[in-house]
From TrEMBL:
Keywords for the protein's UniProt record, in alphabetical order: Transferase
Highest taxon listed in the record's lineage: Bacteria
Organism for this UniProt entry: Bizionia myxarmorum
Domain N-acetyltransferase, first and last residues per copy: 9-174
This protein's name: GNAT family N-acetyltransferase
PANTHER family according to UniProt: GNAT-FAMILY ACETYLTRANSFERASE, SPERMIDINE N(1)-ACETYLTRANSFERASE
Gene3D superfamilies reported for this sequence: 3.40.630.30
Gene Ontology MF: a single term: acyltransferase activity, transferring groups other than amino-acyl groups
Pfam families: Acetyltransf_3 (PF13302)
Length: 174
């Protein structure tokens, strides 16, 4: 089991007992925009996903870790996705689910842990993320952790009857 220890939180591999937490997140319509989700996920589908969560990032091209606070409460998820071995890059995304846990340094701590892991253990050269133009907190989080805006995708996502722009941010690691 992968565990990365930070100052305020730790990241760990997904476990079967995370079913309820992940089911809640994946079925929260308020955050579907972040993951481009269109439909709810059943408990059965999430259970199957958790049964395969042990698979290697080199095989599935994704690594999802649970963010826990020092009290061992599940507070969010952080992902590496579209892992590209040849070009040494991956996308990165983070979600702190409960708004009361935001703006406390948990996201920054988790992001820094996963950046360090990607660089030292996966030999990733660059990370990128896609953030909606109106998600000021996420833009601030990633920029404060060394990501630079490299482009604006106009009318990129269709959300609630209108188009939204999305920034592409990138961080070169080594």
């Amino acid at each position: 089991m992968l565990t990365l220890q930070g100052e305020h939180i730790y990241l760990r591999s997904l476990e079967p007992e995370d079913l309820d937490f992940i089911h809640t997140i994946e079925n929260d319509e308020n955050i579907w925009e972040l993951s481009s989700t269109q439909t709810p996920y059943s408990r059965f589908v999430i259970k199957q996903y958790l049964e395969n969560a042990h698979k290697d990032i080199y095989e599935v091209k994704q690594l999802r870790l649970l963010i826990s606070n020092k009290n061992h409460d599940s507070i969010g998820l952080i992902d590496l996705f579209d892992f590209d071995i040849k070009n040494k890059r991956a996308g990165i995304g983070i979600l702190i689910h409960d708004k009361s846990n935001r703006q406390k340094g948990y996201g920054s701590d988790a992001l820094q842990l996963l950046i360090n892991y990607a660089e030292t253990h996966l030999d990733v050269h660059q990370l990128y993320c896609n953030i909606s133009e109106d998600n000021k907190n996420s833009l601030k989080l990633f920029e404060s952790n060394g990501f630079i805006q490299i482009g604006l995708k106009k009318d990129w996502n269709y959300v609630n009857g209108s188009f939204k722009n999305e920034y592409l941010l990138q961080r070169i690691l080594n």
